[in-house]
Specification:
Helix content: 40-55%
CATH topology: hpI Integrase, Chain A
Strand order of the largest sheet: 1-2
Order of helices and strands: HHHEEHHHHHH
CATH superfamily: Intergrase catalytic core
Shape: globular
Number of strands: 2
Number of helices: 9
Radius of gyration: 18 Å
CATH architecture: Orthogonal Bundle
């Protein structure tokens, strides 16, 4: 059995995560959705500063001091990710996007993950009840935040995105281009990375729509955490 940290989420699970995150409210619902859409690291995403974003929210430039490999990293934000940021409540004077205190990034990931799993389980129970299935719903299979990145890279490969493009988009510490090629190959695949994250965002939304159709219920208005 696979454990958290070593999994690729199925399309159905991706849809469940997207849908359940939409029910969590601020800050964890938007955070989990943004994390899933961008495929960046958990801490880097939690520490997102408004100053790192372009005025139109299309680009997110992580400074080297905040990346695992110590190098600046440019993330192209698909429209669904930009929509999340446009809806984020801004705390006066705070440089951070995902914060409840104004001075520190969101924290308490384990508790937030348990809430997300509980929301997924509740949705499964609701669907089973509506279908007249008396069996208890299966609990969500263990997964961790890093599994978003693994799942995204795997799906992108399935959808025909070149491995070196996905590798650059995820800013892997040890890139797919190694050895002599890493010394001489300096092309950053920026246009291809933008296209890849747009493809991924479309896939995530399609999975979410499939989960919505399976649930066949009206989503609740997100409340505050």
């Amino acid at each position: 059995m696979r454990i958290a940290g070593d999994r690729v989420l199925t399309d159905a699970e991706i849809g469940e995560v997207w849908r359940a995150a939409g029910l969590l409210g601020w800050p964890w619902g938007p955070y989990f959705r943004f994390l899933l859409l961008t495929l960046q690291r958990r801490g880097e995403t939690a520490g997102l500063a408004w100053a790192e974003l372009s005025p139109d929210l299309a680009l997110w430039e992580l400074p080297g001091c905040r990346t695992k490999n110590g190098k600046p990293h440019l993330v192209h934000l698909a429209e669904p990710a930009r929509a999340i940021l446009r809806a984020v409540p801004r705390l006066a004077g705070s440089p951070l996007a995902f914060t409840t205190t104004g001075t520190t990034p969101v924290s308490g990931f384990s508790h937030a993950k348990r809430r997300l799993d509980a929301a997924i389980l509740a949705e499964r129970a609701k669907r089973a009840a509506e279908a007249g299935d008396g069996r208890p719903p299966a609990s969500p299979v263990p997964w961790g935040g890093h599994d978003f990145r693994r799942s995204g890279a795997t799906v992108l490969a399935r959808l025909g995105v070149r491995w070196e493009v996905a590798d650059k988009a995820l800013n892997h510490v040890k890139g797919a281009i190694q050895g002599v090629a890493a010394i001489y190959q300096r092309y950053d695949f920026l246009a291809e990375r933008e296209a890849a994250l747009n493809v991924w965002a479309a896939h995530v939304l399609a999975c979410g729509e499939a989960a919505e159709a399976a649930g066949n219920v009206v989503a609740l208005r997100p409340g505050r955490a």
